[in-house]
């Protein structure tokens, strides 16, 4: 017959197992983020042209300009301790507080509406920046951007470059891409300033997965972009629209290009 000490140790072991089982199943206030979709702003997304322009002649383009996203655990899905521990060491995923994605006090519907509004504002700024650089009258040239269901402002730079490439290219009859798959991220305002966005390390993974060899990154986020940079992906820092175009033209001509 087991001794009292043996029975006590066995009971403690059972309690620890039970506690671990409960902890492993209890939902945690965290969200898992990972590389999301990318979309070529020069092409189609879900069977629809991303950039539609009227009122000005368009040019045939080659290569791709891919905007990038990150995907988060849907708000209705709960993260357990076991799931979080499995994701934590994975360089292709990030475990972050749920409030970083779904702020407290705001419903999922509110967050989605805010993301959609930010995307619309980003598209308007991208159009304004592109037409301003090309000295085109926004009352004559109409631009429609069809990516409203991808929320947030981080595609602004790639929208702007896509509009410019379709209308003017590099200004000398060539493509901004040089025939490459170029990806990137960054907000933009009407004056052409490029802003930081967050999640860059995961976006570089999405870009490389979908064939990109060049990634345009806001200068302030170069450090984050260098973390686990995919092999074969060149990081080019940008502060402004003019700087991004100059870097792409330099890359295409074989001139020196800054890197992160």
From TrEMBL:
Domain named Lon proteolytic is located at 152-224
Q: What is the lineage of its organism?
A: Bacteria, Bacillati, Actinomycetota, Actinomycetes, Kitasatosporales
Gene Ontology BP annotations: proteolysis
Q: Does the keyword Signal apply?
A: yes
Pfam families, per this entry?
Lon_C
Q: Tell me which domain of life the UniProt entry assigns to the organism this sequence originates from.
A: Bacteria
InterPro entries xrefs: Lon_proteolytic (IPR008269), Ribosomal_Su5_D2-typ_SF (IPR020568), Ribsml_uS5_D2-typ_fold_subgr (IPR014721)
Kindly list the GO molecular function terms attached to this UniProt entry: ATP-dependent peptidase activity; serine-type endopeptidase activity
Q: What is this protein called?
A: Lon proteolytic domain-containing protein
Q: Which UniProt keywords apply?
A: Signal
Q: Which residues form the signal peptide?
A: 1-23
């Amino acid at each position: 017959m087991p001794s009292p000490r043996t029975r006590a140790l066995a009971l403690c072991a059972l309690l620890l197992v039970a506690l671990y089982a409960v902890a492993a199943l209890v939902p945690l206030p965290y969200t898992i983020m990972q590389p999301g979709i990318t979309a070529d702003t020069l092409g189609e997304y879900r069977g629809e042209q991303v950039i539609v322009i009227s009122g000005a002649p368009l040019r045939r383009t080659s290569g791709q300009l891919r905007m990038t996203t990150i995907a988060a655990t849907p708000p209705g899905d709960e993260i357990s301790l076991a799931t979080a521990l499995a994701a934590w060491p994975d360089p292709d995923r990030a475990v972050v507080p749920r409030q970083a994605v779904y702020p407290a006090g705001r419903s999922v519907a509110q967050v989605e509406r805010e993301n959609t509004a930010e995307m619309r504002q980003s598209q308007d700024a991208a159009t304004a920046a592109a037409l301003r650089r090309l000295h085109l009258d926004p009352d004559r040239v109409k631009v429609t951007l069809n990516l409203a269901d991808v929320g947030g402002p981080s595609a602004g730079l790639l929208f702007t470059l896509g509009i410019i490439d379709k209308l003017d290219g590099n200004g000398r009859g060539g493509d901004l891409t040089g025939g490459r798959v170029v990806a990137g991220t960054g907000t933009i305002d009407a004056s052409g300033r490029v802003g930081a966005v967050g999640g860059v390390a995961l976006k570089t993974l999405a870009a490389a997965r979908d064939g990109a060899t060049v990634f345009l990154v806001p200068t302030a986020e170069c450090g984050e972009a260098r973390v686990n940079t995919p092999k074969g992906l060149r990081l080019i820092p940008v502060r402004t629209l003019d700087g991004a175009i100059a870097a792409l033209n330099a890359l295409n001509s074989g001139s020196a290009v800054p890197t992160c």
